[in-house]
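Dear colleague,

Thank you for sharing your sequence with our group. We've completed the structure prediction you requested, and as agreed, I am returning the results in plain text so they can be pasted directly into your records. Please verify that the sequence below matches your submission; if there's any discrepancy, let me know and we will rerun it promptly.
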Amino acid sequence: MTNILISGASIAGTTTAYWLRRHGCTVTVVERAPAIRAGGYKVDLRGPALQVIERMGLLDAVRARSTDMRVATHYDTRGRPIATMDADLFGGRTGDDVEIMRGDLNALLYDLTSADVEYIFDDSVTGIAADGTVTFERSRPRRFDLVVGADGAHSVTRRIAFGDEARFTRDLGHYISICTVPNTLLLDREEAVHAAPGRTANVYSTGRDGSAKALFMWSSEPLTYDHRDVAGQKELLTRAMAGVGWEVPALLEAAREATDFYFDSVSQIHMDRWSEGRVVLVGDAAYCASPASGQGTSLAVVGAYVLAGELAAGGGAAAYEREMRPFVEVNQALGPANVKGMVIGSRAALWAQIRMIKLLPHLPGRHKMIDRIAGAIHRAANAITLKDYLLSS
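Please find the predicted structure tokens below.
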């Protein structure tokens, strides 16, 4: 398979493009957006994902663009700080883990691949025939040996090849919204958090950006809405967070003006197989673990590396699935557990969480407590041993 189309210039898509080119394939990437998506939210790279980044020659550049977050502070309704936590512990990071803005990472990956990968922007796949002929919204039809779906949890490629999204979606009972807001709290590499029963608001500003990001998460029964109706989504957010104190009313006003507004359910994608005919899926399109897992970006990077390597080694999609599925399963298991700690259901549970954060630095068994917080993510992040596909080819 030498002529390959990747649908989606996501982190999974650009990483797959790089490794397929390293293995000698001709690669085309089609992306619905008019350019590589900038901005976005903070993402983590851990364990084997950092090994992949190092093998791409990007580790120093990624570390140079670290968010450099220092501290996370919880505030009460009146704006008084009530508990403080190290930012790495708050994000479940240990050792060499790196946190970076999603847009910064994807820009590095795009710059690394743009010279020898064909990128087609402002277009998307509309059909994939059995002989590999692909039709597009704007471009003329073209034939490819393989189509890689790297177009996210709401993948068009997956729908074309496998059917309705609802068959594969596992709802975790929560929603999330993220957008850029003015840094009125004057945060400097800090996270400011306020939690109410069933609802959490988090505002942060990194060392590389003078603005701030507002993140809202709340528990909810399934909502009915149009994925393209941003105004309607903003109204749903306003209703969900109504009555929450602290800075939330001002943040909701800022969200109404945001041009990078993101809104989605906290859900996972579970599939029995990730390939069908000439189509194979990677990243969130195949095995979205949800933002609650903290491992979506690492799964995308590792999955891209393994997919390209197994295709080059002759094992194909079946070998890719054998290598990746145990790793995916242990990381997807993080989502349902983590979301319970991100959105607390009762005032009593909120009180207990804040109390634990306050006492943690002083507890004699604090190292065991810290391992309970970060250890599960660390173990899941390292639950795969990478092959050296270039060495074996």
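Summary note from our side: The first strand starts at residue 3 and ends at 7.

Kind regards,
the structure core
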